[in-house]
Design a protein that fits this description.
The complex is a heterodimer of chains A (247) and B (638).
Chain A lengths: L2 H12 L3 E2 H8 L3 H14 L2 E4 L7 E4 L1 H7 L13 H16 L1 H6 L2 E4 H8 L12 E4 L12 E7 L5 H13 L22 E6 L4 H10 L2 H4 L2 E5 L20
Parallel strand pairs in A: 6-7, 7-8
Antiparallel strand pairs in A: 1-3, 2-3, 4-5, 5-6
Helix pairs in contact in A: 2-3, 8-9
Chain B lengths: L1 H32 L1 H17 L3 H10 L1 H13 L4 H5 L1 H14 L3 H32 L9 H22 L13 E10 L6 E4 L1 H4 L3 E4 L6 H21 L5 E8 L3 H18 L4 E4 L12 H11 L7 H16 L9 H7 L2 H9 L4 H28 L14 E5 L6 H20 L6 E8 L10 H11 L2 E6 L9 H9 L5 E3 L6 H6 L2 E13 L2 E14 L3 H5 L5 E6 L2 E7 L21 H12 L20 H8 L5
Parallel strand pairs in B: 3-8, 3-9, 4-6, 4-7, 5-6, 7-8
Antiparallel strand pairs in B: 1-2, 1-13, 9-12, 10-11, 12-13
Classes of the chains: A alpha/beta (247), B alpha/beta (638).
Chain lengths: 247, 638
């Protein structure tokens, strides 16, 4: 088990499952090498893989793999209706992590799966979980040091009112996920998320922009909207040397 | 003459003794002659006695040996034996065994005779065991008058030990069997039920009404959790296979307090393992919306939640209901929240709302009832304040697979009664809503009699029956089942899914519902202390199917399942819940800016400074993150 394997397994576990091209991009290796790594994990019983949809094969961790990583998640294959969304979120994470300013500021991605695991079965009935959080530690010199951002990948259009409600919910939350119900929203306490970063498909972008416009200015100012990276749609990623992981 | 008579008596005694000796000698000789069968039968009999098995277990074991017998005969046939030789094979095997024993080849002798001797021995052991049970049950066996009772007590102990061993074996007691029935635990003993190692309840019975009675600390919660988990697991299986609707379990715990909350947390973990995606604990963590009820139902629910007397107070009840109707059916639509409803209980608001309404009757009523509106508003303000936010939404039963509703029936009876009434109405509306999602609903109510003044439990029962809901009523005693004896009998006798009895001091009424069975009772002549003669009379008589004494003596985790005039005594298998939710880490991973912390502290110190959640009061201005986003995602279009 090399360090690259460890990084790959942890990355795969956090993202529910990844397609091989994205895994290759994360590890800074070629597609054949990623395929070989996945085959090795499968042989060791740590992972499973299958052709779940269009594009490359998907890899996800088995219960043994999750246990080896020390993660308390339940092993499930990525659900078919969520494949596109999972790919989009992974692509957003990779694009963000590839930015030099991200590395310089010491950003840390906290996945939706981790948030969900913190809540256990207490995921409240209508509560929305972001697709990820990025935490910026203090003392790095970045202007946004000390902040926490919520990440939302929007592929499909929701209604403006629903999108605005989600934005408000995220921006007004004060407690961590998994906290006591009484601490979720406490008047006078600082917001948990300094900003929300929306990465939208061309179809969803107008709705998100309209929802942002419908919010009070104090909340709207904390919402950033960008277009999803091209890799979210399934195009092959070029190998990113910045992500090369030592073997 | 006397001498002759004495001589005759002596001769008769000698002949009898001789006859007995010959009979015993013949029996012993026969047993020695068929030594392999004797050994196998003796072993089987001892095992059945020691483990408390029913004879059927030995017959089944004998049947499972038949493939071995067939294989042995097939091997002989393959070796060239004719049909006649095959028919005589057991005989020749028996002869060969004796030859091998004489030659000192004990192992070979055992192997030679085993194929026919083992099944025959098991069969003989089963018959002997069956005869032993029969003679003791009918009172015709045993050496002393107390032998049948002692035998029964001893066998109960053996059966309990076997059942406990079975449930402690890993994987021996699944939650749901392949045929979809829900396994409650290992069978201790059955009366007029099939004797199987595990007691399993077919899923449709869980979809019928059930009653559970057991005092505190007898394992009632363990049993209920298992039944609930089985309902969810099997329901989810059927739902996944497209053979049924998604299951919904609603538990109304009318005790309240810390104990209920501990059980709720345990239920959440157990049910999560069984397949419930979300468990909502009401009102602590989830809310429902009373205001989602259709206006007509909302009027009657709100009116019934307010306590009013009888006699002269009936007039007041009518006035109250009319004012509630005016507020709910105002032309602007029904109220959306408690605050909205309370705002409407104002004469000026109602006058304004109905000013432009063509409904002259309502306007006229408003004129008459206006002087009472303030009083009604006061009563509802008090009630809604005491009810808290649990019924003020948002939320619906469709939001989770399991709802655990905690009513403070011990501490706040009037509030709990109002809540129970509202929850029952909400659930009934949810189940009957033709446009809503179809769910298979199990409503489990614990100690409902504590809060059933406004909604008698039989009414809940009948209502649930008409809506296709299954109701599971549990109580600590027969008296706790309902308010009066008629209601108790009505609840117990309509439990067509069966009755579960755990240890309780007064099981007689429920035991009587199981009826009686015909047994043979034998009186025997006493020869002298403590021996019995072999002469006596037998007669058939009725005896209760459920032994009330046995129920009173049940240990923790033991239950009697009464269904259709039979009973199965079960050692309930405890479901192991998943690990408890870890408390959030003390040191937040979210770096909180010092300025924000200071402001939060300031806000806490000055209540008037506390603004809306997450408004970031006084936080520093946001930095420009455009360069970072440009690096990651490219420049913003347009």
């Amino acid at each position: 088990m090399t360090q690259r394997d460890t990084v790959g397994l942890l990355f795969t576990a956090e993202m529910y499952g990844v397609q091989l091209d994205l895994l290759a991009a994360r590890l800074g290796i070629g597609l054949p090498a990623a395929r070989a790594a996945a085959a090795r994990w499968r042989q060791q019983g740590y992972a499973d893989s299958a052709q779940l949809g269009p594009g490359g094969r998907w890899v996800w961790l088995t219960q043994a793999g999750l246990a080896a990583c020390g993660l308390p998640y339940r092993a499930v294959a990525p659900a078919l209706p969520r494949l596109a969304h999972l790919r989009a979120v992974t692509a957003v994470r990779l694009a963000l992590e590839a930015a030099p300013r991200y590395a310089a500021a010491g950003g840390y991605w906290r996945s939706e799966r981790r948030l969900r695991a913190r809540m256990g079965s207490r995921v409240p009935l209508r509560e929305h979980l972001p697709d990820g959080e990025v935490h910026w530690p203090d003392g790095t010199g970045a202007d946004w040091a000390g902040e926490c951002w919520a990440i939302e990948a929007e592929l499909t259009r929701k209604t403006v009112s629903r999108t605005a409600a989600i934005m408000t919910e995220i921006l007004t939350r004060t407690g961590d996920y998994g906290c006591l119900a009484a601490e979720v929203r406490v008047p006078g306490r600082a917001a948990r998320h300094s900003r929300v970063l929306y990465l939208c498909s061309p179809a969803a972008r107008p709705v998100v922009l309209r929802a942002r416009a419908a919010l009070p200015a104090s909340l709207a100012a904390r919402i950033e909207v960008r277009v999803l990276p091209a890799s979210a749609a399934g195009e092959q990623l070029p190998r990113q040397p910045g992500h090369r992981v030592p073997t | 003459m006397i001498t002759r008579y004495l001589g005759f008596l002596a001769l008769r005694a000698v002949v009898r003794a001789l006859g007995r000796v010959i009979s015993v000698a013949a029996s012993v000789g026969l047993l020695v002659l068929v030594l392999p069968v004797t050994l196998a039968g003796g072993y089987a009999l001892t095992l059945a006695w020691f483990l408390g098995w029913p004879p059927r277990q030995l017959y089944r074991a004998a049947a499972w040996c038949l493939p071995m017998l067939a294989a042995w005969l097939a091997a002989l046939a393959a070796a060239g034996d004719s049909w006649a030789q095959l028919a005589a094979a057991p005989w020749t095997a028996w002869l060969d065994m004796w030859h091998d024993l004489a030659a000192g080849h004990y192992g070979l002798a055992a192997v030679t005779v085993a194929p026919p001797a083992i099944p025959l021995g098991l069969l003989a052991g089963g018959l002997a065991w069956s005869w032993r049970i029969y003679t003791l049950e009918t009172g015709s066996g045993g050496l002393s008058p107390s032998a049948p009772a002692a035998f029964d007590r001893r066998q109960w102990r053996h059966q309990v030990r076997t059942a406990r061993a079975r449930i402690s074996a890993p994987g021996a007691v699944p939650l749901v069997r392949r045929d979809g029935s829900v396994v409650a635990g290992a069978t201790i003993r059955t009366v007029r039920h099939p004797a199987r190692p595990l007691t399993a309840i077919p899923y449709p019975r869980l979809r019928s009404h059930q009653v559970v009675i057991g005092t505190t600390g007898t394992g009632k919660t363990t049993l209920l959790l298992r039944l609930w988990a089985g309902f969810i697991r099997r329901g989810m299986q059927q739902y996944g296979a497209g053979a049924g609707a998604r299951p919904l379990l609603v538990v109304i715990d009318c005790k309240g307090g810390a104990d209920s909350r501990r059980i709720a947390e345990r239920a959440r973990r157990v049910l999560r393992g069984a397949g419930a995606a979300a468990t909502a604990i009401w009102p602590d963590e989830a809310t429902l919306s009373l205001w989602a009820l259709p206006p007509g139902q909302l009027i009657s629910t709100l009116s019934d939640m307010i306590e009013h007397g009888t006699g002269g107070a009936a007039y007041y009840a009518d006035v109250l209901e009319e004012i509630v109707r005016l507020a709910v059916t105002a032309p602007c639509g029904p109220p959306a929240s408690a605050a909205d409803f309370q705002a409407r209980l104002d004469p000026d608001w109602l006058r304004l709302a109905y000013a432009a309404s063509p409904d002259a009757t309502s306007a006229a009523l408003l004129g008459t009832a206006a002087r009472h509106v303030t009083d009604v508003a006061l009563r509802f303000r008090t009630l809604l304040r005491r009810l808290g936010g649990g019924l003020d939404g948002p939320g619906s039963f469709g939001d989770a697979d399991t709802w655990y509703c905690i009513l403070e029936g011990t501490a706040e009876i009037t509030v709990a009664e109002a809540q129970a009434r509202a929850l029952a109405d909400l659930l009934a509306w949810y189940a009957a809503d033709p446009g809503g999602p179809r769910r298979e609903i199990l409503l489990a109510v614990d100690e409902f009699s504590a809060v059933s003044r406004r909604l008698p439990i039989w009414q809940l029962y009948e209502r649930a029956r008409s809506l296709g809901l299954a109701v599971q009523v549990s109580a600590q005693s027969w008296q706790g089942l309902a308010a009066d004896e008629d209601e108790r009998y009505r609840v117990a006798s309509t439990a067509d899914g069966g009755i579960w009895l755990l240890r309780t001091p007064y099981p007689e009424p429920v035991a009587a519902l199981a009826g009686t069975r015909r047994v043979v009772d034998t009186t025997r002549r006493l020869l002298g202390v403590p021996l019995w003669a072999h002469e006596g009379l037998s007669r058939a008589e009725g005896t209760p199917v459920v032994d009330a004494e046995l129920i009173r003596g049940l240990a923790v985790g033991q239950a009697a399942y009464i269904y259709r005039g039979g009973v199965s005594y079960v050692q309930v298998k405890r479901l192991v819940a998943g690990p408890a939710q870890l408390s959030p880490a003390p040191a937040p991973e979210v770096p909180v800016p010092a300025a924000a912390t200071a402001m939060a502290a300031a806000g806490a110190a000055r209540p008037d400074a506390a603004g809306q959640p997450g408004e970031r009061p006084g936080a520093r201005p946001l930095a420009d993150i455009g360069p970072l986003l440009d690096e990651a995602f490219g420049p913003e279009p347009g």
